[in-house]
Write a structure and sequence with these properties.
single chain; Adenine-n6-DNA-methyltransferase TaqI, Chain A, domain 2; Helicase, Ruva Protein, domain 3; 13 helices; 12 strands; 16% strand; disordered C terminus
């Protein structure tokens, strides 16, 4: 049955009941349960490609009110998507890199308050673009997207939890500096890594591996943070040193360091400010695997 035929049948008959198959087998997935014996169970990432969305700049009116559907969670109130409340232009496609997704694909919402009470699933019948709160799943030709939509709808938002273990979520949270924006960014990086390198299930070990590759360590420091601390320690003996001097040493902007790097290092106690400049603390040395200097009378408070 084609997507359009399925839509017509559903609209005409509403909920349909089918006779059970004569025999079933264990699918091998606890959350899925038994499946008909002549079916095969497969990881979603093996039979589909996932596409992420984005939002063109709202202030650029030349990107909006065109002829191309831009689907967001507020449009996910019907099974088949043929239009959307918001639309974008060909210019938006050309200048922003947002992807036009050919039908049919299964659309799901992966974040947002709507997941607190429902798990929206829909199928596209026309080319669409989507926003960043959604994923578009394009399945192999031998996989019926209508069945997948029914399956996902029946399983509900539990399928999201099924692929993200609690320990993985905790690992991401530990490295996100207590900032939701950073947590969302790291989650996307880990999810992309898991889809390519593993079986689609986000475990704590895979999260650690992905974040290590991303350059985000166990305390949430990224490469720039560590360059900043390393310069303070190796080039200036741990300080005191001015922000401009460190910026010149690592070839970065002092404003960037003072606004994007230093606040978190101060917060976690890796850097302190003194009247004569910034100093690296014992905790910073230990974190970088370096030997702290013996405390002098003026440094005692930092290295005791």
């Amino acid at each position: 049955m084609s997507v359009s035929d399925a839509g017509k049948a559903e609209a005409a008959t509403g909920v349909r009941r089918f006779e059970p198959y004569p025999a079933y087998k264990d699918s091998g997935a606890e959350w899925l349960g038994a499946i008909p014996t002549h079916w095969d169970a497969a990881k979603t990432w093996r039979i589909s490609d996932a596409t992420s969305g984005a939002t063109p700049a709202k202030e650029e009116r030349g990107f909006w009110d065109g002829d191309i559907p831009w689907v967001s969670p507020k449009d996910m109130k019907r099974r088949f998507i043929q239009s959307s409340e918001d639309t974008i232009t060909e210019r938006a496609l050309a200048e922003t890199g947002i992807k036009l997704i050919a039908p049919p694909v299964v659309l799901i919402v992966v974040r947002g308050m709507i997941l607190a009470h429902t798990f929206p699933v829909a199928i596209t019948t026309v080319p669409v673009t989507i926003n960043q709160d959604m994923k578009a799943l394009h399945f192999r030709r031998d996989v019926d997207p209508v069945f997948i939509a029914w399956l996902f709808e029946g399983l509900g938002k539990g399928i999201l939890g099924a692929v993200v273990e609690d320990a993985a979520a905790e690992e991401i949270a530990r490295r996100a500096r207590g900032t939701p924006r950073i947590a969302n960014r790291l989650l996307r990086r880990v999810r992309d890594y898991v889809q390519v390198m593993a079986d689609g299930v986000m475990t704590s070990s895979l999260a650690r591996e992905a974040l290590d590759r991303e350059g985000v360590d166990a305390r949430g420091l990224d490469r720039l943070d560590r360059r900043f601390l390393t310069a303070m320690i190796d080039q200036y003996g741990g300080g005191p040193v001015g922000i401009e001097a460190v910026a010149a040493t690592i070839n970065d902007e002092a404003e960037t360091l003072s606004e994007m790097v230093e606040p978190y290092l101060l917060k976690i106690g890796f850097v302190v400010r003194t009247p004569s400049g910034r100093r690296a603390t014992r905790e910073a040395y230990t974190h970088l695997g370096k030997q702290p200097p013996a405390p002098s009378s003026s440094q005692g408070a930092l290295f005791e």
